[in-house]
Amino acid sequence: MLAVVLGLIAATGCSATGGKRAEDARKAAAAAQNGRPAVDTPRWTIAMVTHSGDGDTFWDIVQKGARQAAAKDNVDFLYAHSDQGQEQAQLVDAYVAKKVDGLIVTLAKPEALKASVARAVAAGIPVVTVNSGSEQSAAFGALTHIGQDETVAGRAVGDTLDERGRKKALCVLHEQGNVGHEQRCDGIRETFDGELQNLYVDGTNMPDVAASIEAKLQTDPALDAVVTLGAPYADAAAQAKRTAGAKAEIATFDLNAKVAAALGSGTLAFAVDQQPYLQGYEAVDLLWLHRYNAHVLGGGRPVLTGPQIVTGKDAAALAEYTERGTR
């Protein structure tokens, strides 16, 4: 599959009055609605390479944001992914060889990507990191990082578990070697007054995820909370709870339509939203702004899109957005 993707990559080769600003904004919005670019800049090419595995719906939301910004900014948007660090690095190298005008990269496995990102920067290609790698982004030469601070997000979960009276929780890690996932669980541990255990599962095998959580709930009835680190795994945790006959609350990082519905029904206690649509949108938009006007956001610090704790009371307001795949 990687060879096919690499082959495809290689083959694609003065102030105005308030009234005028308002009119310009109206025209831009109308153009965007009609699928036309809102700008007349050259047709630049921006590529995104993520650590997503196949079928991870989180990255569908990121891509929607990126493609919306690309349509507005007259950008040709390219996307590739691999959950294997070395393969992700090869995809980055392929886009560098293609001489794209901007590159968006996730750094879930930063050491595997370090040399490839350095080659992009050396080639004069501006790089923005998203989602994972806030601590390494600047050192690797990226313009900025867009996403949530995973440790801060974890601390917010720990505080929320305390507020809900939880005493013993399980943190379910579905991707080995993902530093962001470790940071989430470590952040929970920093603020949670109770006991937190890590459970490592194979995120590519959902029945195995459910079975592993179920076994843990059955052998340790004192567990009163399960925290998954991605929206698709919340449903597996809820299923495991039912099968085990457990009473533990289920919470999750990230949001999608199923999670919003489960929040509304009370199946899930709360979720952590990092606004993936915004991560994709802002990454493309920032690279366009940098190419057009040398803009940089963040002042040397990450541009945060989360965390935001959402509960059942927020479900109805979020339903419209989760159903269309933008939250």
Brief characterization of the structure:
The protein is α/β, with parallel strands linked by helices and 327 residues long.
Explain how this protein is built.
The protein has 327 residues and is of the alpha/beta class. It has helices at residues 2-11, 18-33, 57-72, 85-97, 110-122, 150-163, 179-191, 206-219, 231-244, 257-265, 276-293, 312-323, and strands at 44-50, 75-81, 102-105, 127-130, 144-148, 168-173, 195-200, 225-228, 249-253, 270-273, 303-306, 308-310. It folds into two domains: 2-149 and 276-306, Response regulator (Rossmann fold, 3-Layer(aba) Sandwich); 150-274 and 312-323, Response regulator (Rossmann fold, 3-Layer(aba) Sandwich), CATH 3.40.50. The protein has twelve helices and twelve strands. The strands form two sheets. Strands 2-1-3-4-5-11 form a six-stranded parallel sheet, with helices on both faces. A six-stranded mixed sheet has the order 7-6-8-9-10-12, with helices on both faces. Strand 3, helix 5 and strand 4 (127-130) form a beta-alpha-beta unit. Helix 8 (206-219) crosses helix 9 (231-244) and helix 10 packs antiparallel against helix 12.
- Name the CATH homologous superfamily of the largest domain: Response regulator
Number of strands: 12
CATH topology of the largest domain: Rossmann fold
Mean pLDDT: 91
Q: How many domains in all? A: 2
Q: Based on Cα principal axes, name the global outline.
A: globular
- By oligomeric state, this entry counts as single chain
Percent helix range? 40-55%
What distance lies between the first and last C-alpha atoms, to the nearest angstrom?
Answer: 29 Å
Classify the secondary structure makeup into a structural class: alpha/beta
Residue fraction in strands: 15-25%
Q: How many H/I helices? A: 12
Task: Note the run of SSEs as H and E.
Answer: HHEHEHEHEEHEHEHEHEHEHEEH
Unreliable spans are 14-18
Largest sheet: 6 strands, parallel
Strand order of the largest sheet: 2-1-3-4-5-11
The CATH level-2 architecture of the largest domain is identified as 3-Layer(aba) Sandwich
CATH class of the largest domain: Alpha Beta
Our Rg estimate from Cα atoms comes to: 21 Å
